[in-house]
Amino acid sequence: MRRLLIPLLFLTTAAFAEEVHLSTDQWQRLGLKVASVRKAERVPLGRVPAQVTVPPENDRLVTAPLGGRIVAVTVDRGDAVRAGQVLAVLESPELLQHQQHLLDAWHELKVAQSRRQREKPLYAAGVIPKSRWQETEKRWQLARTAYRQARLELEVMGLTTAAIDRLLSGGRLDSRLQLRAPAAAVVRERRVKVGQRVTRADPLLHLIVPDPLWLELAVPVTLADRLGGQIEVEIPGRGAHGQVIRIGTLVDPANQTIPVRALLDRPADLRPGRRLEARLTAPAHGAVKLPRAAVIEHQSRHFVFVRTPQGFEVRPVTPLWLGTETAYVKAGLRPGEEVAVRATAALKAAWLGVGEEE
């Protein structure tokens, strides 16, 4: 004689049946609730520690182009600067020498150019010999090269085109050189003080250009082995998003992680140096998502109860990700199907025949 030990489960089912039949009254007594299966766009892979960085080419070091003394510093650590903004002022006797060199080259060029213009028609008319014209042409070319070189040297040092033009038009030398930001950036470090003497190539300021931004992730080896193409990263709660562009090959022996790099296309308000937690996601490839409460486990396999006209069908599924609230499965369900999300323990007991005895 078999009798049911759980009064609520008046279910027409046998142990390990493929379907659990329920009447409307039984449904209500059990307090069953269902939810719809939805199509997944992407599947979470896990959360890993990360740090915001910048590409190497966005790390800029402002150095002293000449030896001299720092007479002004206009920025400090953490300041945002515009491209071309004055960062510091260097006073250098060497600058006077380079300016005088340019003035000398400029005067030589004007003399050579005047002589060339004067002798060109004379040579064309046969008044002067070819050898003299060739010598004139050679001097003009040498003077032009010397002028261009002297001007370029000042440009490399940081003199603007306007400052050089003022020097050429007025002939006034200036021992002070304004050091400007090469791009819109943030001051990461200030290494110099007012009054400090520096030599050529001494580092003065460390700048970082915060666009674009990278995200350096430390991914466990077990997770890194699952990474394929089109892996994306998200920063929960901040709206930041990016694409994985590099997966490292060396394992850190201390923590068994692999370095993974992502390019942030939506950096939100993230700043270089910040440490945070990032979430990795992969393409869904037909996977669906449903409430985590719908998935049960039995003998190391996963199942869900899919609603049918007679009750619920017991269907095996293959999970890709089981979170605290949401589950993602790659096989066994279709979008739009309804699954039980409440009283699943009672359904499982009925499915397995638990609660009956001879």
TrEMBL record:
Keywords: Signal, Transport. Gene3D superfamilies: 2.40.30.170, 2.40.420.20, 2.40.50.100. Residues 212-282 form the CusB-like beta-barrel domain. One of its GO terms (biological process) is copper ion export. It comes from the Bacteria. One of its GO terms (cellular component) is outer membrane-bounded periplasmic space. GO terms for molecular function: transition metal ion binding. Residues 288-348 form the CzcB-like C-terminal circularly permuted SH3-like domain. Residues 1-17 form the signal peptide. InterPro entries: Beta-barrel_RND_2, BSH_CzcB-like, CzcB_C, MFP_Cation_Efflux. Residues 62-204 form the CzcB-like barrel-sandwich hybrid domain. PANTHER family: CATION EFFLUX SYSTEM PROTEIN CUSB (PTHR30097), SLR6042 PROTEIN (PTHR30097:SF4). This is Membrane fusion protein, heavy metal efflux system. It comes from Methylomarinovum caldicuralii.
